[in-house]
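REQUEST ID: PR-0412
SUBMITTED BY: lab tech R.K.
PRIORITY: routine
TASK: structure prediction, single protein chain
INPUT:
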Amino acid sequence: MEENINYEFVELNWKKYPIPALASKFNLSPIKFMQLIRKRGICKDIQPFELEYINEKINTVPLSEIRQQLGVTKTQLEQLIRCKLSNKSSNSSIITLDDVISKTKWLIEDKLKLTLDDFLPRSITSKEFFEADLYHCIKFATVLKAKDSYYKSFSAIAFLVCEAYPSLYKPFQFRHSKTNDYFKGKTGRKNLINAAIWVIEDKMHLSPESLKAISNSRYFLRSRDLAFYGISSHWFRMHFDSHDEFINSILSNFEITKHTNITTKQLREILLESGRNIDKCELKSCPLKCEAPEIHHIIPRSIRTIKPEKLHAPDNLLVLCSKHHTQAHQFDWQKYSFEGANLRDELMLFLESSIN
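STATUS: complete
OUTPUT:
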């Protein structure tokens, strides 16, 4: 498109006519037009729409990308940020979780143009972040995840992508998690089963009612399928003597009677009728933005001795983001099953302690 610009005409008229009008004459965006004529040395003055562009992008894309789009040097951009923009926008030394999430989404969707599918966790690495000048995102994630009881076992990349797309991915799906402690020990065994249940329900879209009939299929939960989602045979062999024993343990967790089988829509209605907000995580200190909050049963639905009216009562339900829903499965509700104990309060305290 550059060769279609009449630079002689531009040089004679750029002070006479508005830059956006000249850009439209050559079918270019004002930003692209300024980049090209700045490269030719015709006009080096920063335009108002360029300041607006910087102000909008400074917290969502790398500074190197902004420099490239505007055609300015690193020093020029730093001076612009320091002198022309507000302190709120220009303080690039302060970075927040929202900032790194925005930049992660920009990298995946705009820069790399990756599809948000199940192959993404197997392909994206820190290399892409470094090459896009997003090292500060890796550094931020490394510090933050080290303080988090859930994410500390996983890579910074897993943290960033899962925070950006909480309803799509789990951290154990990502590469470079072979030394984590998430699937180790007594808690690890429970995490392993819950991870497999997540694969069955969210990835293979199988209903609990159908499992008994299809579990004998040679293609049901093959080792290679589990490994694809981050549950390699290395992990389940730490807790089970065979693949079949692992499968049987998973199936036993799905043995729920008809009276415990209630839809998410019905649970949402129960909570709405009790005056609860079902659109966000009920953990007050939760800093995460969750597009699809999940409903957690404090006393699990697998406990068949509990009457339905108690099992699905509002006091036994908690609206949580995907991350805290996963952590809630680690809560030992039986430890607090004594007279006078409030399971909901105890679970909230348990989850709060994982944040601090």
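NOTES: The first strand starts at residue 294 and ends at 297.
REVIEWED BY: pending
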